[in-house]
Amino acid sequence: MLSEHFRSREPSAIRIAGIRFAERRDGTEAINVAIGNVSLPMHPAMIDRMSRLAAPDSPFRDGIVRYTPTVGLGETREAFLHVIAASGLSTDGLHCQITEGGSQAMELVVVGLCGPPGRDERPLMLIDAAYTNYQALAERTGRATVSITRRLGEDGKFALPDLDEIERRIVEAKPAALVVIPYDNPTGQFLEPETMVSLARLCVRHGLWMVSDEAYRELFYTGDEPSSIWRIDDDEVPGIGGRRISIETASKVWNACGLRIGALVTDHAEFHTRAVAEATANLCPNAIGQWIFGSLAHESVESLRGWFENQRDYYGGMLSTFTARTRELIPEIIVSSPDASIYSVVDVRRFAGADFDALDFVLHCASEGKVERDGRSLTLLTAPMAEFYASESPESNPGRTQMRIAYVEPPERMALVPDLLASLLESYVKRAAARA
């Protein structure tokens, strides 16, 4: 017999379209913007390391791949701290542990801060719409989550509740930690430094850890400076020291999703020690991936900042083009403001009605929907948003009419996304009306 947990498992919102499409056999080609699977080359220093796995100076030259220390290679830890410093942030007193992607860092946060049910349970607080893996990892480890909910206005802006409402929710739910994503996945919202400071003060006032998922740090297209937990110190928010954690990854800014290399960074020595102890059950992160990412430890700050700027130029242009073209083709559609990260949310509630089911539409596109373009049959894979809202009932879930778009296809393919979305939506809505 399978466990109750296994019997309840379904593919995540970011994977379900791809899984369904893999069953299709009609020759249709998919443009997959459902998952943040970046298609750009890695940083040149990382590519150079990867190309020299058998070189005389490579630790893998003899074909031997040993375990590394659980905490990670010293060079790789230095690389993550160097990257943080390149954003103009202090790394004094920070402890860095290498993890199996950002996902393992998330899981360590959940088990390290939140109590199991029935025994001094303190949940993890999320800001809906929230990255789905936090909820999934909490469920896997028997921990609870609570949420505060942002709303997508008709102007394309996601709005946080006011601070009084957030504080009331904290008092009511007594969470152990608040997770923030300054360059947000899935919404594309940018949490300005001033907002981060306000949230940090709430964390100190109510004894919460502040966990900042900084996978997309430096990918912001508004404001003058990057936002980070490491920009906030005890001078600005007395008491924040010793309760700060960031989640880092090679996946996004460095275009290395498949390396599965991340980091858990904290200014709390005991949390670091215990997190490493917990991770010994996993033995170690990917040794080859660590060595490849470790190359960044030797890059100049100027070089890294130039890389950040190039990444912003690349994504910022595509986000603006997509937003303008989609609004042109479907005037009723709501497209989130392209402020940060590599995602947009589209809401079709004004175009298709409040009863629109984004999951059904996504599965339709994956299994049978198609558009003929220049002799090719194309479809579009997106991520339905309902799963990103943990706190809402199915009937009132804002994500029911929303989908997330990831800017991961090459520009020439991303340019097709607005037209495909418009055509597929139009045919889907017409079909639904005919059936009614």
SSE layout:
Blueprint: H1 4-7, H2 16-21, E1 29-32, H3 44-51, H4 74-86, E2 95-100, H5 101-113, E3 124-128, H6 132-140, E4 145-149, E5 151-152, E6 158-159, H7 163-173, E7 177-180, H8 193-205, E8 209-213, E9 244-249, E10 261-266, H9 269-279, H10 287-293, H11 301-329, E11 334-335, E12 343-347, H12 349-352, H13 358-367, E13 371-373, E14 376-381, E15 383-384, E16 402-406, H14 411-414, H15 417-435
Parallel strand pairs: 1-14, 3-4, 3-7, 7-8, 8-9
Antiparallel strand pairs: 2-10, 5-6, 9-10, 11-12, 12-16, 13-14, 15-16
Helix pairs in contact: 3-10, 4-11, 5-6, 11-15
Number of domains: 2
Supply the CATH architecture of the largest domain: 3-Layer(aba) Sandwich
CATH superfamily of the largest domain: Type I PLP-dependent aspartate aminotransferase-like (Major domain)
The total strand number stands at 16
Placed side by side, the strands forming the largest sheet appear as: 2-10-9-8-7-3-4
Mean pLDDT: 93
Shape: globular
How large a portion of the residues is in β-strands, by DSSP E?
15-25%
Broad structural category = alpha/beta
Q: Kindly provide the name of the CATH class of the largest domain.
A: Alpha Beta
Uncertain stretches of 5 or more adjacent residues: none
CATH topology of the largest domain: Aspartate Aminotransferase, domain 2
